[in-house]
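Bug #77: duplicate submission created two jobs. Keeping one. Sequence:
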Amino acid sequence: MKRFSSHRLSQDPLSKKVRSAAQGNEVDLASVPTFFDPFPDYTQEVAEESGRWNFFYPLFLHQDSAPIKLRTSPQLPTGSSPQARLTSGLPVVSELPGMRAVRCLDFLKVSLHIKWDGTDSDLLPILDFMKKQVQDTELDCIPVFKEHGFDWNLYRTGTRYYTYRIKSGDVTLLFNRRTHDQKIPNCRVEIGSLSCWSPGFYSVFNKIKAFLALHGGEVMKEIVSEVHLAADFIGTDIKTTDLDDKSRWIALARKEGDHDGLVVQKRDPEPDPDVLEFDRDYMNRKFSGVRVGKGNLMLRIYDKVGELKCTRATHKQQIFSEIWGLKAYDEQPVTRVEYQLRRPKLREFSDREGNQINTVFDLVNALKSLWAYLTSEWTRHAENPVNRNHNRTKAKVSEFWQKVQAVVWTGVFGYVRTHPVKHRDTEMLRKQARGILMSVCASFEIEPNDIDKIVYLCQEMIEEDLHRFFKDEKKFVDKMITKRNEFRATLAG
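Kept job's structure:
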């Protein structure tokens, strides 16, 4: 993994003061900003020589972000970098001439384990000092850094596992004071939709690592926690696709058969089966999208133009009209196909050597495999209603779904989804736990039909006991590893 050198320290004035104070020098704090001045007009700024992205004025792009040219070609994508292959004018569709589509990640969440340099690291002290400043005001956030292509705001509150939260546009950084060698990461990166598309998630992520290095932080480990793969089909009206016909969908799920019109097939072994739900969305009583699955693995198909109209986000409308090659965002209908994968499902994919998708570079290399699995195995939309008494693998996919499957991503086909074989019956253990908890609740003389109170009491007891056990973190982790190993097959020799 490429590591950034930390010998070039941040030249931010506040960073210099903190470093000087840490060395025992007297520091003049009179010039520390109080942030009561009027908020600056960022629309008057001119892009710097580095071509940094200005989130307040979205027409400024990075100099390495070329406009997307919509064209098709049978050639496979090539480029100087993974992000170049995702955001440049290279082909995104094969075997279907004339179809117009663009694709990119629409959201990326990465957990980082950062080792902070004891002498050069000033980021957390700055955030701690400035958080006290903002909490003394009625403001929700205040600006703290303006460097390396980002304009960071610090928010008065963090999140459940993170004490500090800073944002620049739709890019969020979360920090806590844990060390890099603990199980829970001490930093989380979230890159939103606009930044993923332009200037591009790969470029933004690398700039974030460079920003952390300037403040004495070295990334020791990175784990992709969540990713959304999105493809936009320009000129395709979702109301003409018959996607709302549940009987035409084929998907992997818990039990084989016809579930209220959604044809599903069982795949062995599937110890943690995907609970597939099917929901239709309507806008002004007109069909606007479908959702298949939920949580860790989910498919959403929806009218992207309709969504942009509802949100009334003019900056997004401008950006996507440029990405789609249109004069106006609503000039033509656009149907988006978006898959959501979270860490529990991403870890099930590995290459031939057993390497999982951990880093962002691993993810870029696996995008082609992920899209192929999701559109060809996990979900398919058939041309006609599917007969569950026949071999569904031979069912012809619809014309629209052929377009979906034909989208070309960067990477290789070497990643496959595997499922560990469990050696114990999870359902039986749940029944035992349920019976024990009901016995404990009965000792409190709760009314037998007061299900809400019973559930609340069970949750309270479980949470209290597990947190008490977690105080000895090493013992807790060792116990969890032992129990996990009891479920997994051991492959010897």
